[in-house]
Amino acid sequence: MKQSALRRIITTDLPVLLIVLFAMAPFAWMILTSLTPTAVLSATGVSLSPLGWSLDNYVRLIEQTSFLKNMLDSLIIAAGTVVVGLIVSVTAAYAFSRFRFPGRKLLMLQFLLINMFPIVLLILPLFVLMRRFNILDTHFGLILANATVAIPFAVWMLTSYIGAIPKSLDEAAMTDGCSRLSALRKIVLPLTMPGIISTGIYIFITAWNEYLYALTLGGRNVRPVTVAIQTLIGEYQIEWGLLAAGAVVGAMPATILFLLVQRRLIGGLTQGAVKG
Amino acid sequence: MSRSNPSPVERRTLFSWHSERLLPYWLLAPAVVVTVVIVFMPMAQAVFTSFYDLILFRPNASKFVGFGNYVKLFNDPVFWTALWNTIIWIGLTVPLQMGLGLVAALLLNREFPWRGLARALIIIPWALPSVVIALMWRWIYDPNTGVLNDILIYLSIVQSAVPWLADPKVAIYAIIATLTWQGFPFFAVMILAGLQGIPRSQYEAASIDGASTWRQFVHITLPGIAPVLATAGLLRVIWVANSMDVIFVMTGGGPGYATHTLPLYAFVKARQNLDFGYGTAIAVTFTILLGAFVVLYLSRTMREVER
Fold first, then answer.
1. Which residues belong to CATH 1.10.3720.10 in chain A?
2. CA distance A157 to A233
3. What fold is seen in the domain A58-275?
4. What's the CA dihedral at A17, A23, A29, A35 to 10 degrees?
5. What's the pTM?
6. pLDDT tens-digit profile of B59-76?
7. pLDDT tens for residues B104-121?
8. Which ipTM score applies to this complex?
9. Overall CATH class of domain B68-306
10. What residues of chain A lie within 8 A of the CB of B41, using their CB?
């Protein structure tokens, strides 16, 4: 018995530990860097002992840079993308999963294809278009840009979630006198809620982490954290301590959300791929 | 929805035979309209722009040049460098991510007490913003104060500090290593889901027949996860091909053109030189190449998987 436990530790626990360390080490290193005061960092390098740690970099980050305002920008954009993405996708997904109509396959294919388009192909014309309509460097513009990724993704996820709910349920509601739309609102929406929430969270994380659109279509008035972190390099000479603090704070919301919902999220994401 | 609260009479007419047939189109309209406006119109515009000589700050000087930009592209040595880099970039990153993901998934599929925790922690790289990842690794790779050189010198693997991102021969591989790190959790999670779909009875039957672990892996595990590998592999090829943000932040495409990939080249052209005509021509070419690859891949793997 004891020997089999030892065997398990050598063949399973240790290798897993190695992979977990590999996955976590860079970010852990970033956290250590952010906790080391700049003077110490340039003199003796990253401090490994808790005695050398301080929140100095975080204090400077909040006091001397506009990081909190940048966080707010990111929050508005990510939340806005979730709202836009979900609202237009829920009804579309309902249509795909409940109706058979001419053009259905083609329209579904369209949403799949959009997922594949290189962002660089869209970013340049979007810049030109948004400049013409004067929505460059606004929250609205960046929400629209992020929706290019969010909508096709949400349509596909929600179609599979709604497809998993038995048709007979909304048909029963309709024989009881509900219209299609109220059957959608009263029966399908509540049952799909877990799926809608995970899709929303995934959109939020993606929009929060998005960088190229934010850099190109925003940047001055509206500066999400991903862009702000990088400007920490430019505004000062490379100050790795401050930069690391910005990176840790900027990555926190998405990472925490992700850890909270990872089980369900991954269930939803892998479902489709494993099936087909 | 514009038609909230219709009276019962109205409702009956709205949802008569005709409207019931139109209803799916109404339901789809918002999503379709929005995607047409923010995806298909810009795309059409991109194709259109690629036939023009358009420098952004001189919009009046723009003129139609037909396939001029594409001819220029064909004769542009940087284009060929970038194309080659893109091939290396995809050709190394995706298999490395897949290999490491497979190992991680096989390990996570075993029974051990802290399995749930390990699974959650392994995914962390996937949740981090790519800017953070790029800056983090720049810090690790830093030639003077980076921890990687410190460790390698301490272990006497290298004699002197390696300028990971400043050496044109090494830079692209250093970035590939970073992207491998970022992307392997995705494969691990996908493959793990595939592994859990393989019935345990198959392994039991095989071990009764005396099949070795390796033979079980080759004849049960691999065929079992082949569809997942095919799907996840394709998704990753598209994603890795497009992901230029990590390269952009780590090296900006340099030193020289050593880490330029096609999308990055298009982006840099448009962003720094404001040469939108040429930039979009590169982007369109890249999209066509990627699309061709996807079609080829789909037609081949579908046949393989079905066999």
1. 58-275
2. 38
3. MetI-like fold (1.10.3720)
4. -90
5. 0.85
6. 666 777 778 788 888 888
7. 999 888 888 888 888 888
8. 0.85
9. mainly alpha
10. 125, 129
